[in-house]
Amino acid sequence: MKNIAVLGSTGSIGRQTLEVIASHPGSFRLVAMAAGTNADLIIEQANKFQPALVSVSTKELAERVKIHIPAHTKVVYGLEGLIEVATHEDVHTLVTAVVGSIGLKPTLAAIEQGKQIALANKETLVTAGQIVMELAAKHQVSILPVDSEHSAIFQCLQGENKSQVEKIILTASGGSFRHKSREELVNVSLEDALKHPNWSMGPKVTIDSATMMNKGLEVIEAHWLFSMPYDNIEVLLHDESIIHSMVVFQDSAVMAQLGTPDMRVPIQYALTYPERYPFFTPRLDLAQVGCLHFREADFNRYPCLRLAFEAGKTGGTMPTVLNAANEIAVTQFLRSEISFLDIEKVIEETMNQHEPIANPTLEEIEEVDRWARERAKSIERRC
Ligand SMILES: NC(=O)C1=CN([C@@H]2O[C@H](COP(=O)(O)OP(=O)(O)OC[C@H]3O[C@@H](n4cnc5c(N)ncnc54)[C@H](OP(=O)(O)O)[C@@H]3O)[C@@H](O)[C@H]2O)C=CC1
Ligand SMILES: CC(=O)[C@@H](O)[C@H](O)COP(=O)(O)O
Ligand SMILES: [Mn+2]
């Protein structure tokens, strides 16, 4: 029996993780879960899974939730609550599936306690990749990728000599506006931006996908997970999201991982690794699919992708700034306070105003993260 804790249980990844847990009751047990404000779903999940510990966003919500769930379930709240869930003594594997860099501190705390990490939350690695990976190495903790591209690469690398990898190719759908020119992006709506062509996901990652910042964050995530130099990471537009990513080896062989777009597959693999458990879903039917399409990813069409490569190559605290400014800009766009094209402007201006710190400490990262959020907010007001 593997004991699991989930951060972000009410979200898109969190809900699918609980589905996977429920589909293998003899193998997995949910012992702790954390979410934000979705009280109804938190109560429903706590009653169904009966975890020992639940965390919610605020004290008021904790008091409200407590009345409706089993008395033996402890209810905590806030960042301390997230950390308590992540480090619960019975937990073997932590699934980090909150959105945003709020995932960083609980993930670090879990690593310090020797918990295995199934990581969906890419912002954690973008904000503080070096610190996370060094701590994981120190405590001999595996960071198992949940993100579909990184799970694909991880699968392609099984049994391979990593020093013989020439490059990795991250596939990208191109997002909700992939058939629009830059000129056509001027007046796009929030409603249309939220219509991802292939995946049903939370709002933040869906907007990131439309700007291609999602792929930019994934480039930095891949750099840290696979120790891959940025010059050996390529992004390829692929309309169907069926090839989840590829690895090119020095003998020219290309390994790819394919499947229908269903996040329960990489979630389950991160929980069962190195085993594969059955999963009853319609199989990929390539004859039915017929054609797969590919195009080059153009930095002029997708400036957020360029900015992410620049931030990654600059290193130090620049990826922290990229991520923080993006989180602010996307939040503002989701509130209809700025336009779609303002997102990239806010990020680039914030980055331009930052003097990066090399090899930052966690405290320096937190300080820079706060600075970047404030700076990004002030830029937005001018747009
Ligand atoms: N969705 C997907 O298919 C994929 C997502 N990812 C990554 O996984 C992460 C999660 O994405 P997704 O599931 O789509 O996001 P969602 O927006 O669907 O879910 C976010 C979750 O985080 C919780 N949450 C947000 N803020 C806080 C907070 N301050 N304290 C506690 N809980 C909080 C939410 O709680 P509540 O709703 O209760 O407020 C919710 O449970 C992101 O980093 C994303 O990039 C990666 C690959 C694919
Ligand atoms: C499902 C998943 O892993 C998402 O991160 C996905 O990659 C988004 O799709 P695109 O960024 O390719 O549009
Ligand atoms: Mn992805």
TrEMBL record:
- Could you name the domain of life of the organism this protein comes from? Bacteria
Instruction: Write out the residues that bind 1-deoxy-D-xylulose 5-phosphate.
Output: K122, S148, E149, S173, H196, S209, N214, K215, E218
Annotated ranges, domain 1-deoxy-D-xylulose 5-phosphate reductoisomerase N-terminal: 4-129
Annotated NADPH binding sites: T10, G11, S12, I13, G36, N38, N121, E123, G202
* Single GO molecular function: 1-deoxy-D-xylulose-5-phosphate reductoisomerase activity
Please give the family membership noted in the entry: Belongs to the DXR family.
Q: Which UniProt keywords apply?
A: Isoprene biosynthesis, Magnesium, Manganese, Metal-binding, NADP, Oxidoreductase
State which gene encodes it.
dxr
Q: Which reaction does it catalyse?
A: 2-C-methyl-D-erythritol 4-phosphate + NADP(+) = 1-deoxy-D-xylulose 5-phosphate + NADPH + H(+)
> Could you say which cofactors this protein requires?
Mg(2+); Mn(2+)
Give TM regions: none
Q: According to the UniProt entry, what is the EC number of this protein?
A: 1.1.1.267
Q: What does this protein do?
A: Catalyzes the NADPH-dependent rearrangement and reduction of 1-deoxy-D-xylulose-5-phosphate (DXP) to 2-C-methyl-D-erythritol 4-phosphate (MEP).
Q: What is this protein called?
A: 1-deoxy-D-xylulose 5-phosphate reductoisomerase
**Location of the 1-deoxy-D-xylulose 5-phosphate reductoisomerase C-terminal domain:** 143-226
| Every DXP reductoisomerase C-terminal domain range | 258-374
Q: Which Pfam families match?
A: DXP_redisom_C, DXP_reductoisom, DXPR_C
Pathway(s) per entry = Isoprenoid biosynthesis; isopentenyl diphosphate biosynthesis via DXP pathway; isopentenyl diphosphate from 1-deoxy-D-xylulose 5-phosphate: step 1/6
